[in-house]
Amino acid sequence: MTAVQRDRRFYVLLFLLFLVLGVNTFLYRSPITPLVLSADANWVVIGSLIDLAIVAPLLILFLKRGKKITVKSFVMWMVLGVVLARFLIPSVYFEPFTYLPIAAIGLEAVILLAELGLVVLLAWRLPGIIRWIKAHGESPLFLLPAAVEKRVGSHVLLRIVAHEIIVFFYAFASWKKHPPKGESYFTLHQKSSLIAVYIMLIHAVVIETIGIHWLIHGKSPVISVILLILNIYTVIYFIGEIQAVRLNPLSVKDKKLYVSLGMGKRMVIPFAEMEKIHWGKEAAEFNLKSKELITFIAKDFEEVPPHCVIEFRKPLEASMLYGLKKTYTKAAIRLDEPERFKSLFS
């Protein structure tokens, strides 16, 4: 019943959005425009600006279910609405409002500069953050994003920059480090083909880069250089991913599970938030494609089941690729030593 209501709400909002856009388009871009609008139609234009810069952005934001509505997202859609109004409304009617697109773009530029200021602040405080991580002697995979959020902020741009710092750290600065060992560490990849898969992908990207660069460079040097840069970054990312998997086994500290699988998936699971743990055949029965379940299962040449599925008392947050956050109610984990891990909870 809830799903039906949500679908109905979605289609009602979509209908209203098309109605707003359609009515304004018909008003200004149809044969009847000169008949219904006089040369002095300022109030009509003001109404259209409200439709396109306020009503339409709100409808779009409400249509994006599950996405948090923020001032920044509203301002972005508002600016696009004002620019659309500039192209939609003929110049003869829009002339008294020509300053609005410039003001809207200026507002967006101010927001962009503020975001760039956050990046500058992060660069200023990064040496101190690095010293703090080294003092703790822990992996930056979990500590760096938390330190950036605590000392600079949780803006999405900061999370992306922190993710890129982690990528280049593991690709270039982690080769002298060794995987942690001990009773509280559990590897997830050694009995899988994960590393082999990444090595194969690196070889494929390198061969593709050489071939495409040779074929395209003569015809379009710009596209060739762009593809070359993207492929180089892809290779760097895969190298960093291999190192992140090797150096960050599942760990148990302070009655919490710190579990990750590379740089694009990590989660902290407090013991107090574990409702139930399913093992063996019971765990294999779970649908691994469920949106409520996050999987920490190393890639293999064939599909393999999890050794356990942990159900949470409440949804827990996980950090995904480029600092994106998602919540899950269950986690599926496959380990190299499942029995040793199971003994922690017996």
Folded structure, characterized:
With 346 residues, this protein is α+β, with helices and mostly antiparallel strands. It folds into three domains: 96 residues, no CATH class; 61 residues; 169 residues, no CATH class. 58% of the residues lie in helices and 14% in strands. The longest helix has 38 residues. The N terminus is likely disordered. This is Beta-carotene 15,15'-monooxygenase.
Order of secondary-structure elements: HHHHHHHHEHHEEEEHEEEH
Helix proportion range: 55-70%
Ranges where pLDDT stays below 50 over 5 or more residues in a row are 1-5
Termini separation comes to: 41 Å
Protein name: Beta-carotene 15,15'-monooxygenase
Transmembrane segments: 12-29, 41-62, 74-93, 99-124, 156-175, 195-215, 222-240
Keywords: Membrane, Transmembrane, Transmembrane helix
Organism: Siminovitchia thermophila
Can you give keywords for this protein?
single chain; 346 residues; alpha+beta; 3 domains; eight-stranded mixed beta sheet; elongated; disordered N terminus
Outline the fold blueprint.
Elements: H1 2-28, H2 33-36, H3 42-63, H4 71-88, H5 91-94, H6 99-136, H7 140-151, H8 156-172, E1 185-186, H9 194-216, H10 221-247, E2 250-253, E3 256-260, E4 265-270, E5 274-279, H11 280-284, E6 293-296, E7 308-320, E8 325-333, H12 338-342
Parallel strand pairs: 6-8
Antiparallel strand pairs: 1-2, 2-3, 3-4, 4-7, 5-7, 7-8
Helix pairs in contact: 1-3, 3-4, 4-6, 6-7, 7-8, 8-10, 9-10
